[in-house]
Amino acid sequence: MIERPGDVGTVHTERTPRVVRARALLRRSRRDEARRFLAEGPQAVSEALAVGEPAVEELFGTEEALSRYAALVEVATDAGVRVSTVTDRALDSLADTRTPQGLVAVCRYRDVGLDAVLARRPRLVVVLAGIADPGNAGTVLRTADAAGADAVVFTDDSVDVYNGKCVRSSAGSVFHLDVVRGGEPVAVVEALRAAGLWVVATDLRGAQDLDELADAGAFAVPTGWLFGTEAHGLSAELSAAADARVRVPIHGRAESLNLAAAAAVCLYTSARAQRPRGAAEPSSTDAEGR
C-alpha cells in the first residue's frame, strides 16, 4: 500500500463520492458545469503535470499503477495534487478505453478566447470546422502542436476538445498550445482576417495548388488553415469566406488523403516557410517515429 498524506490506507470504490463526481465528467454537460475534464493514461497525466500551472486537480490510480508510475506520483504530490488509490473497478468506471492503464487525472479546462489568441499576434492557427470524429480532431491537434502552431480553434459545430478520445489522440498536446472552444465558423474566419492572417481553406477541388504556392513563398506570412470533414469538406459558405482555396496535390492513384495526413502536409508546409533558414530543431523523431 502506497501511503500519502490525507490518503493513508484508503482505497476508494466506484461508489466513493469523489469517484462518482469524477465519473460524471465523462458527459460534456457535466464537464462544462465543472470546467473540469479527465485525462487518462500515464502520457496524458505526465504532460498535464509538466504544465507550468496547476492543470491537475486530482489523480486517481490503482495500487499497481501508482507503484509502476511512482515518479509521476511523486511529481503530483510535490505539486500539491491529491492522489487517490482506487479499485480496478472504480478506475474502469472513470476510463472510456477497453484496457485502461490505471491512471486518470481530473484536469482544469485550458481553453482561451479567440480574442486572447489573436492579441498575441499568432503566425499559425488551425481551425477545425464541423469535425465530428474525436480521434481525427485529437490527431490534428497533435500535428498542429508538432508543427509549431500557436492555436487550434474548435468551432461550434466540431467535437468537444475535452472528449476523452480527443484528449487521448492528442497525446498530451491539449496541454501544450492554446485551444479555442467554440465560435461560428465564418465569424472565426473574419476575426482571423481582421487580425492580419491569410486564411486558407483546404479543398479537394481548390483552384490553387499547395506546392505551387509554397514554391512562390506564399506561406511565409501569418496563416490560418481551415480543415473540414473527410466526408464533406468545408461548407461552400466557409470555403468562400477564405482568402484562398488550396488543394493538396495527389501524385499517385489515391482518391484523397485523410484529414490527419492532409493537415500534416499543410501545416508542415507553413512551418517550413515560417522558420528562419538554419534554425535549430527543438526535437526530432528517429526513423521509426519514436
3D structure, described in words:
The chain is α/β, with parallel strands linked by helices. The chain contains 13 helices and eleven strands. The strands form two sheets. A seven-stranded parallel β-sheet has the order 7-6-5-10-8-11-9, sandwiched between helices. Strands 1-4-2-3 form a four-stranded mixed β-sheet. Strand 5, helix 8 (134-146) and strand 6 form a beta-alpha-beta unit. Helix 8 (134-146) packs parallel to helix 13 (259-274). The model is unreliable at 1-6 and 286-290 (pLDDT under 50).
Features:
290 residues; disordered N terminus; 13 helices; four-stranded mixed β-sheet; single chain; elongated; alpha/beta; seven-stranded parallel β-sheet
Would you count the extended β strands for me? 11
Helix segment tally: 13
Radius of gyration (Å): 21 Å
Overall pLDDT score: 91
Portion in helices? 25-40%
Strand arrangement in the largest pleated sheet? 7-6-5-10-8-11-9
Series of secondary-structure elements, N-terminal to C-terminal = HHEHEHHEHEHEHEHEHEEHEHEH
Sheet with the most strands?
Answer: 7 strands, parallel
The low-pLDDT segments are: 1-6, 286-290
End-to-end span in angstroms? Answer: 34 Å
Look at the helices and sheets and give the structural class: alpha/beta
Tell me, briefly, the overall form: elongated
Query: What portion of the residues fall into strands of 2 or more residues?
Result: 15-25%
Organism: Actinocatenispora comari
GO molecular function: RNA binding; RNA methyltransferase activity
Pfam families: SpoU_methylase, SpoU_sub_bind
Domain RNA 2-O ribose methyltransferase substrate binding: 38-113
